Amino acid sequence: MGAEKLIESLNKLLQLHQNLYQVTLQKTDYLKNNDVEKLKEILKKEQKFVQAVKQIEDERIQLTGQFLAREQDLTLSACIEQAEGEQKQQLIEIEKEFTDIMGKLRAANELNRELTHQALQFVSLSLDMLMPQENMTNYQRPNGQQSQIENTRRSLFDSQA
User: Fold this and answer.
1) On the CB side of 59, how many CA atoms lie within 13 Å of its CA?
2) Given this model, what pLDDT does residue 160 score?
3) Which residues, in sequence order, are CB contacts of 59 under 8 Å at separation 6+?
4) Residue 140 lies in a domain
5) Res 123: pLDDT
């Protein structure tokens, strides 16, 4: 069996990863601008691409198994070793493009992870400022227990005053 169908499947997979990278860049912009509504939309779009990648990856695994005539070591490198001529060149080019796009995706996802972490730290800090912990006093109950009311956090704006 030739590698035509496998190359076609790999090209689809590469295109999906390139689209996913574009979505990841949009997500970075929305995280920087704190645009929650657009972030929700882009996360849905990203999920669709991830599902499509899973489907094409399953197809690729099947086609790779047929091309290599085995069920183990179904890698692109193994396909390159077995391919000949023009197909080998196409597979080498696809491998280079995959390496490039995967590096870009990793970097963009790491940046998005850091931006999300910073946003969560900011929210946590803001909540702590609005709902400070009650100061510890020098006096405690003789039995050492605190009442239910003493255990709850107090808001900056105490409505029970």
Assistant:
1) 15
2) 53
3) 9
4) no
5) 78
Name residue, tokens 């069920």.
71
Q: Give the residue from 51, 52, 26, 20 showing the smallest Cα distance to 39.
A: 26
Domain that holds residue 49: 4-122
Task: Specify if 42 maps to a domain.
Answer: yes
Q: What is the pLDDT of residue 90?
A: 95
Q: Whose CA is closest to 103, among 13, 10, 21, 16? A: 21
**Threshold 0.85, pTM exceeds:** no
Confirm if 27 and 119 have CB atoms less than 8 A apart. no
Asked if residue 61 belongs to a domain, the reply is yes
Asked whether residue 149 is domain-assigned, the answer is no
Total structural domains in the chain? 1
Q: Does residue 154 sit in helix, strand or coil?
A: coil
